[in-house]
Amino acid sequence: MKSYISRNPEIMSGVPCFVGTRVPVQNLFDYLESSFPLGEFLKQFPTVSEEAAVGVLEEAKHSLLKDETPA
């Protein structure tokens, strides 16, 4: 699985950012939590592609569900 998240201590003090940008991944979650649509986030952060934003959401989902066992 391709990662869309970069952690580099020399970029934004190691805060997880979208690969190739200085946009913290947390911004995406903050926008969605505030009920803004994905399109609004992409409009405000044009250096983040739709593919990268969806990829980060997929990575988060995979991370949360990887150890889940059926009930």
From TrEMBL:
Pfam assignment, any one:
DUF433
InterPro entries, per the entry:
DUF433 (IPR007367), Homeodomain-like_sf (IPR009057), WH-like_DNA-bd_sf (IPR036388)
Please identify the protein, giving its name as recorded.
DUF433 domain-containing protein
Query: Which species expresses this protein natively?
Result: Massilia horti
